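Hello,

I think I submitted the flavin-adenine dinucleotide job twice by accident. Can you confirm which output corresponds to this input? Input:
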Amino acid sequence: MSYNIAVVGFGLTGRLAALELSLVHNVTVYEVGNAQALSSAGRVAAAMLAPLAESVLCEQDLALMGLDSINRWPKILAQLDDTVFFQQQGTLVVAHQQDKGDLQSFAQRLKPLANHQVKSVNRFEIEALEPEFAGRFNQGLYLPCEGQIDNQAFYSASFNTLQKRHVQFKFDKKVDIACKQLLKSYDYIIDCRGLGAKNTTCKLRGVRGEVVRLHAPEVSLTRPIRLMHPRYPIYIAPKPNHEYVIGATEIESQDSGPATVRSTLELLSAAYTVHSGFAEARILSIQTGLRPAFSDNRPQVNHEGKVIGINGLYRHGYLLAPSLVAEAVALIK
Ligand SMILES: Cc1cc2nc3c(=O)[nH]c(=O)nc-3n(C[C@H](O)[C@H](O)[C@H](O)COP(=O)(O)OP(=O)(O)OC[C@H]3O[C@@H](n4cnc5c(N)ncnc54)[C@H](O)[C@@H]3O)c2cc1C
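Support: Only one job matched these inputs. Its output is below.
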Protein backbone atom coordinates (compact mmCIF):
# COMPACT_ATOMS: atom_id res chain seq x y z
CA MET A 1 0.00 0.00 0.00
CA SER A 2 1.25 3.46 -0.91
CA TYR A 3 0.98 6.25 1.70
CA ASN A 4 1.50 10.00 1.78
CA ILE A 5 4.48 10.49 4.06
CA ALA A 6 6.23 13.62 5.32
CA VAL A 7 9.90 13.41 6.23
CA VAL A 8 10.80 16.32 8.50
CA GLY A 9 14.50 17.20 8.47
CA PHE A 10 16.75 16.63 5.45
CA GLY A 11 19.93 15.74 7.35
CA LEU A 12 21.41 12.26 7.52
CA THR A 13 18.43 10.22 8.75
CA GLY A 14 15.97 12.29 6.68
CA ARG A 15 17.88 11.52 3.48
CA LEU A 16 18.07 7.82 4.24
CA ALA A 17 14.39 7.67 5.18
CA ALA A 18 13.35 9.56 2.03
CA LEU A 19 15.44 7.23 -0.17
CA GLU A 20 13.90 4.13 1.35
CA LEU A 21 10.30 5.42 1.48
CA SER A 22 10.24 6.99 -1.99
CA LEU A 23 10.60 3.53 -3.54
CA VAL A 24 7.02 2.77 -2.49
CA HIS A 25 5.29 5.88 -1.11
CA ASN A 26 4.58 9.53 -2.00
CA VAL A 27 7.14 11.46 -0.02
CA THR A 28 7.36 15.16 0.86
CA VAL A 29 10.52 16.39 2.58
CA TYR A 30 10.49 19.43 4.89
CA GLU A 31 13.75 21.14 5.84
CA VAL A 32 14.30 24.31 7.85
CA GLY A 33 17.37 25.14 5.74
CA ASN A 34 18.03 24.70 2.03
CA ALA A 35 18.84 21.55 0.00
CA GLN A 36 22.34 21.47 1.43
CA ALA A 37 21.02 21.39 5.01
CA LEU A 38 23.99 23.38 6.23
CA SER A 39 23.03 23.10 9.91
CA SER A 40 22.78 19.31 9.75
CA ALA A 41 25.36 17.42 11.85
CA GLY A 42 25.60 14.89 9.04
CA ARG A 43 27.03 17.50 6.69
CA VAL A 44 29.88 18.32 9.08
CA ALA A 45 30.67 14.72 10.08
CA ALA A 46 33.76 12.75 9.11
CA ALA A 47 31.40 9.89 8.19
CA MET A 48 33.62 7.13 9.47
CA LEU A 49 32.03 3.73 9.95
CA ALA A 50 33.94 2.54 12.99
CA PRO A 51 32.09 -0.09 15.03
CA LEU A 52 35.25 -1.49 16.64
CA ALA A 53 36.95 1.79 17.53
CA GLU A 54 33.66 3.23 18.80
CA SER A 55 32.99 0.11 20.91
CA VAL A 56 35.29 1.77 23.44
CA LEU A 57 32.57 4.40 23.92
CA CYS A 58 29.32 2.52 23.26
CA GLU A 59 27.62 -0.70 24.30
CA GLN A 60 28.31 -3.88 22.39
CA ASP A 61 24.80 -4.10 20.87
CA LEU A 62 25.31 -0.71 19.20
CA ALA A 63 28.70 -1.77 17.85
CA LEU A 64 27.05 -4.90 16.41
CA MET A 65 24.31 -2.74 14.89
CA GLY A 66 27.13 -0.72 13.33
CA LEU A 67 28.44 -3.86 11.62
CA ASP A 68 24.96 -4.51 10.23
CA SER A 69 24.72 -0.91 9.00
CA ILE A 70 28.08 -1.06 7.21
CA ASN A 71 26.72 -3.95 5.14
CA ARG A 72 23.69 -1.84 4.21
CA TRP A 73 25.64 1.18 2.90
CA PRO A 74 26.78 -0.30 -0.46
CA LYS A 75 23.15 -1.14 -1.34
CA ILE A 76 21.98 2.34 -0.35
CA LEU A 77 24.69 4.01 -2.43
CA ALA A 78 24.07 1.69 -5.41
CA GLN A 79 20.58 3.17 -5.89
CA LEU A 80 21.98 6.69 -6.32
CA ASP A 81 22.51 8.14 -9.78
CA ASP A 82 25.91 9.63 -8.86
CA THR A 83 28.88 7.70 -7.50
CA VAL A 84 29.63 8.22 -3.81
CA PHE A 85 32.99 7.21 -2.38
CA PHE A 86 32.64 4.29 0.05
CA GLN A 87 35.58 2.41 1.46
CA GLN A 88 35.97 -0.55 3.78
CA GLN A 89 39.70 -1.06 4.11
CA GLY A 90 39.93 -0.83 7.86
CA THR A 91 41.20 1.77 10.30
CA LEU A 92 44.81 2.08 11.42
CA VAL A 93 45.30 3.24 15.02
CA VAL A 94 48.75 4.59 15.89
CA ALA A 95 50.51 6.31 18.78
CA HIS A 96 53.83 8.06 19.14
CA GLN A 97 56.41 6.13 21.18
CA GLN A 98 55.83 8.22 24.33
CA ASP A 99 52.05 7.60 24.14
CA LYS A 100 52.11 3.84 23.72
CA GLY A 101 50.30 3.50 27.06
CA ASP A 102 47.28 5.23 25.49
CA LEU A 103 47.32 2.72 22.65
CA GLN A 104 47.44 -0.18 25.12
CA SER A 105 44.61 1.29 27.15
CA PHE A 106 42.53 1.73 23.97
CA ALA A 107 43.22 -1.90 22.94
CA GLN A 108 42.06 -3.12 26.36
CA ARG A 109 38.77 -1.24 26.11
CA LEU A 110 37.80 -2.54 22.64
CA LYS A 111 34.83 -4.90 22.83
CA PRO A 112 34.84 -8.26 21.03
CA LEU A 113 32.69 -8.14 17.87
CA ALA A 114 31.87 -11.60 16.51
CA ASN A 115 34.66 -12.64 14.10
CA HIS A 116 36.02 -9.16 13.63
CA GLN A 117 39.47 -9.29 15.13
CA VAL A 118 41.76 -6.43 16.04
CA LYS A 119 45.30 -6.98 14.83
CA SER A 120 48.36 -5.55 16.59
CA VAL A 121 50.77 -4.22 13.98
CA ASN A 122 54.50 -3.48 14.18
CA ARG A 123 56.43 -0.82 12.25
CA PHE A 124 56.81 -3.03 9.15
CA GLU A 125 53.13 -3.95 9.06
CA ILE A 126 52.21 -0.28 9.53
CA GLU A 127 54.47 0.59 6.60
CA ALA A 128 52.83 -2.12 4.46
CA LEU A 129 49.40 -0.63 5.21
CA GLU A 130 50.43 3.00 4.86
CA PRO A 131 53.78 3.38 3.04
CA GLU A 132 54.06 7.07 4.01
CA PHE A 133 54.30 6.02 7.68
CA ALA A 134 57.65 4.27 7.03
CA GLY A 135 59.80 4.66 10.15
CA ARG A 136 57.27 6.94 11.82
CA PHE A 137 55.35 4.66 14.19
CA ASN A 138 56.55 1.52 15.98
CA GLN A 139 53.23 0.17 17.18
CA GLY A 140 49.61 0.25 16.16
CA LEU A 141 46.34 -1.57 15.79
CA TYR A 142 44.56 -2.51 12.60
CA LEU A 143 40.75 -2.74 12.67
CA PRO A 144 39.95 -4.43 9.33
CA CYS A 145 36.14 -4.26 9.34
CA GLU A 146 35.91 -0.47 9.43
CA GLY A 147 35.11 1.96 6.64
CA GLN A 148 33.99 5.45 5.71
CA ILE A 149 31.96 7.32 3.12
CA ASP A 150 32.15 10.76 1.53
CA ASN A 151 29.29 12.52 3.27
CA GLN A 152 29.35 15.64 1.10
CA ALA A 153 29.00 13.50 -2.03
CA PHE A 154 26.22 11.52 -0.32
CA TYR A 155 24.33 14.73 0.50
CA SER A 156 24.33 15.94 -3.12
CA ALA A 157 23.77 12.50 -4.69
CA SER A 158 20.82 11.69 -2.43
CA PHE A 159 19.17 15.03 -3.31
CA ASN A 160 19.66 14.43 -7.06
CA THR A 161 18.18 10.93 -6.91
CA LEU A 162 15.22 12.03 -4.79
CA GLN A 163 14.48 14.84 -7.25
CA LYS A 164 14.46 12.33 -10.10
CA ARG A 165 12.00 10.23 -8.12
CA HIS A 166 9.69 13.27 -7.93
CA VAL A 167 9.90 13.59 -4.18
CA GLN A 168 8.48 16.99 -3.20
CA PHE A 169 10.72 19.39 -1.29
CA LYS A 170 9.66 22.21 1.02
CA PHE A 171 12.77 24.13 2.02
CA ASP A 172 13.01 27.03 4.49
CA LYS A 173 10.17 25.41 6.41
CA LYS A 174 10.49 25.04 10.17
CA VAL A 175 7.96 22.34 10.95
CA ASP A 176 6.06 21.93 14.19
CA ILE A 177 5.53 18.18 14.43
CA ALA A 178 2.39 18.62 16.54
CA CYS A 179 0.79 20.91 13.90
CA LYS A 180 -2.76 19.66 13.24
CA GLN A 181 -2.60 20.57 9.55
CA LEU A 182 0.52 18.42 9.10
CA LEU A 183 -1.03 15.49 10.95
CA LYS A 184 -4.16 15.80 8.80
CA SER A 185 -2.27 15.94 5.50
CA TYR A 186 -0.14 12.81 5.86
CA ASP A 187 -0.59 9.15 6.75
CA TYR A 188 2.81 9.11 8.48
CA ILE A 189 5.34 11.73 9.59
CA ILE A 190 8.96 10.70 9.97
CA ASP A 191 10.58 13.04 12.47
CA CYS A 192 14.27 13.37 11.50
CA ARG A 193 14.90 16.80 13.05
CA GLY A 194 18.01 15.82 14.99
CA LEU A 195 18.74 18.56 17.50
CA GLY A 196 15.85 20.59 16.03
CA ALA A 197 13.60 18.35 18.16
CA LYS A 198 15.25 19.52 21.39
CA ASN A 199 12.37 21.63 22.65
CA THR A 200 9.84 18.86 22.22
CA THR A 201 11.97 15.82 23.05
CA CYS A 202 12.87 15.00 26.63
CA LYS A 203 16.59 14.86 27.51
CA LEU A 204 17.90 15.56 24.01
CA ARG A 205 21.09 17.62 24.01
CA GLY A 206 23.74 18.76 21.56
CA VAL A 207 27.36 17.68 21.80
CA ARG A 208 29.64 20.09 20.01
CA GLY A 209 32.19 18.81 17.51
CA GLU A 210 34.67 20.68 15.34
CA VAL A 211 36.39 19.37 12.21
CA VAL A 212 38.88 20.76 9.72
CA ARG A 213 38.78 19.78 6.04
CA LEU A 214 42.14 20.03 4.26
CA HIS A 215 43.44 19.65 0.75
CA ALA A 216 46.84 18.01 1.18
CA PRO A 217 48.49 17.03 -2.14
CA GLU A 218 51.66 15.98 -0.25
CA VAL A 219 49.80 13.39 1.82
CA SER A 220 48.71 10.01 0.46
CA LEU A 221 47.02 8.10 3.25
CA THR A 222 44.61 5.44 2.07
CA ARG A 223 42.39 4.70 5.08
CA PRO A 224 41.16 6.41 8.28
CA ILE A 225 43.90 6.91 10.86
CA ARG A 226 43.34 7.38 14.58
CA LEU A 227 46.07 8.90 16.70
CA MET A 228 46.00 7.91 20.37
CA HIS A 229 47.18 10.85 22.40
CA PRO A 230 46.67 11.73 26.09
CA ARG A 231 45.25 15.17 25.31
CA TYR A 232 44.45 15.39 21.61
CA PRO A 233 43.25 12.07 20.26
CA ILE A 234 42.31 12.75 16.63
CA TYR A 235 41.26 10.94 13.50
CA ILE A 236 42.21 11.67 9.92
CA ALA A 237 39.68 10.51 7.34
CA PRO A 238 40.98 10.59 3.76
CA LYS A 239 38.35 11.56 1.18
CA PRO A 240 38.83 11.56 -2.63
CA ASN A 241 41.26 14.03 -4.32
CA HIS A 242 43.69 14.33 -1.40
CA GLU A 243 41.07 15.83 0.88
CA TYR A 244 41.27 14.95 4.57
CA VAL A 245 38.85 15.50 7.41
CA ILE A 246 40.65 16.03 10.70
CA GLY A 247 38.46 15.61 13.73
CA ALA A 248 36.90 15.87 15.96
CA THR A 249 36.55 17.70 19.21
CA GLU A 250 33.85 16.54 21.59
CA ILE A 251 32.65 19.26 23.94
CA GLU A 252 29.59 19.17 26.21
CA SER A 253 28.21 22.41 24.85
CA GLN A 254 25.23 23.44 22.73
CA ASP A 255 27.21 26.31 21.22
CA SER A 256 27.16 25.92 17.44
CA GLY A 257 29.34 28.99 16.88
CA PRO A 258 32.57 28.92 14.85
CA ALA A 259 35.48 26.70 15.94
CA THR A 260 37.83 28.07 18.56
CA VAL A 261 41.52 28.80 18.04
CA ARG A 262 42.34 26.25 20.73
CA SER A 263 40.42 23.42 19.03
CA THR A 264 41.82 24.29 15.62
CA LEU A 265 45.39 24.40 16.94
CA GLU A 266 44.97 21.05 18.69
CA LEU A 267 43.48 19.30 15.65
CA LEU A 268 46.02 20.69 13.19
CA SER A 269 49.07 20.26 15.46
CA ALA A 270 48.16 16.64 16.14
CA ALA A 271 47.63 16.02 12.40
CA TYR A 272 51.04 17.51 11.66
CA THR A 273 52.69 15.11 14.12
CA VAL A 274 51.09 12.22 12.19
CA HIS A 275 52.31 13.43 8.79
CA SER A 276 54.52 16.46 8.11
CA GLY A 277 52.97 16.76 4.63
CA PHE A 278 50.00 18.45 6.31
CA ALA A 279 52.21 21.54 6.80
CA GLU A 280 51.56 22.70 3.23
CA ALA A 281 47.91 21.62 3.16
CA ARG A 282 45.24 24.17 2.33
CA ILE A 283 42.42 24.66 4.80
CA LEU A 284 39.16 24.15 2.92
CA SER A 285 36.85 24.60 5.89
CA ILE A 286 36.67 24.59 9.66
CA GLN A 287 33.21 23.51 10.70
CA THR A 288 31.19 23.00 13.83
CA GLY A 289 28.27 20.65 14.37
CA LEU A 290 26.07 19.59 17.25
CA ARG A 291 25.58 15.85 17.62
CA PRO A 292 22.03 15.08 18.81
CA ALA A 293 22.30 12.85 21.88
CA PHE A 294 20.09 11.51 24.68
CA SER A 295 21.43 11.30 28.23
CA ASP A 296 22.54 7.67 27.77
CA ASN A 297 24.03 8.46 24.34
CA ARG A 298 21.88 5.72 22.79
CA PRO A 299 19.74 6.30 19.68
CA GLN A 300 15.95 5.95 19.78
CA VAL A 301 13.23 5.04 17.30
CA ASN A 302 9.84 6.13 18.68
CA HIS A 303 6.35 5.58 17.33
CA GLU A 304 3.41 7.63 18.59
CA GLY A 305 0.25 7.83 16.48
CA LYS A 306 1.24 8.90 12.98
CA VAL A 307 4.69 10.12 14.03
CA ILE A 308 7.80 7.95 13.88
CA GLY A 309 10.89 9.62 15.31
CA ILE A 310 14.54 8.68 14.78
CA ASN A 311 16.95 10.61 16.97
CA GLY A 312 19.89 10.63 19.38
CA LEU A 313 22.45 9.21 16.97
CA TYR A 314 25.19 11.12 18.81
CA ARG A 315 28.61 10.39 17.28
CA HIS A 316 27.34 7.29 15.48
CA GLY A 317 25.00 8.68 12.82
CA TYR A 318 26.71 7.20 9.77
CA LEU A 319 27.53 4.09 11.71
CA LEU A 320 23.96 3.35 12.82
CA ALA A 321 21.50 5.26 10.63
CA PRO A 322 20.95 2.60 7.92
CA SER A 323 19.81 0.02 10.52
CA LEU A 324 17.77 2.54 12.53
CA VAL A 325 16.01 3.89 9.45
CA ALA A 326 15.18 0.32 8.38
CA GLU A 327 13.72 -0.25 11.87
CA ALA A 328 11.62 2.93 11.56
CA VAL A 329 10.40 2.12 8.03
CA ALA A 330 9.34 -1.36 9.19
CA LEU A 331 6.82 0.34 11.54
CA ILE A 332 4.84 1.56 8.52
CA LYS A 333 2.14 -1.04 7.93
C1 LIG B 1 31.96 16.94 14.10
C2 LIG B 1 31.12 15.71 13.90
C3 LIG B 1 31.73 14.55 13.44
C4 LIG B 1 30.97 13.38 13.27
N1 LIG B 1 31.58 12.26 12.78
C5 LIG B 1 30.87 11.12 12.62
C6 LIG B 1 31.49 9.96 12.10
O1 LIG B 1 32.66 9.96 11.73
N2 LIG B 1 30.74 8.82 12.02
C7 LIG B 1 29.43 8.77 12.39
O2 LIG B 1 28.83 7.69 12.31
N3 LIG B 1 28.80 9.89 12.86
C8 LIG B 1 29.49 11.04 12.99
N4 LIG B 1 28.88 12.18 13.46
C9 LIG B 1 27.48 12.09 13.94
C10 LIG B 1 26.43 12.28 12.86
O3 LIG B 1 26.74 13.35 12.03
C11 LIG B 1 25.06 12.52 13.54
O4 LIG B 1 24.80 11.48 14.45
C12 LIG B 1 23.94 12.56 12.49
O5 LIG B 1 24.17 13.55 11.54
C13 LIG B 1 22.56 12.77 13.13
O6 LIG B 1 21.64 12.68 12.08
P1 LIG B 1 20.19 13.38 12.15
O7 LIG B 1 19.57 13.17 10.83
O8 LIG B 1 19.50 12.90 13.39
O9 LIG B 1 20.49 14.93 12.40
P2 LIG B 1 21.10 16.00 11.39
O10 LIG B 1 22.08 15.36 10.47
O11 LIG B 1 21.60 17.13 12.24
O12 LIG B 1 19.86 16.49 10.54
C14 LIG B 1 18.73 17.14 11.11
C15 LIG B 1 18.10 18.00 10.02
O13 LIG B 1 16.81 18.44 10.47
C16 LIG B 1 16.64 19.80 10.11
N5 LIG B 1 15.63 20.37 11.02
C17 LIG B 1 15.75 20.57 12.36
N6 LIG B 1 14.61 21.07 12.88
C18 LIG B 1 13.74 21.18 11.84
C19 LIG B 1 12.37 21.60 11.75
N7 LIG B 1 11.68 22.01 12.82
N8 LIG B 1 11.76 21.58 10.52
C20 LIG B 1 12.43 21.16 9.42
N9 LIG B 1 13.75 20.73 9.46
C21 LIG B 1 14.38 20.73 10.66
C22 LIG B 1 18.03 20.40 10.28
O14 LIG B 1 18.18 21.62 9.58
C23 LIG B 1 18.91 19.25 9.73
O15 LIG B 1 19.10 19.39 8.33
C24 LIG B 1 29.58 13.37 13.61
C25 LIG B 1 28.97 14.56 14.02
C26 LIG B 1 29.73 15.71 14.17
C27 LIG B 1 29.05 16.98 14.60
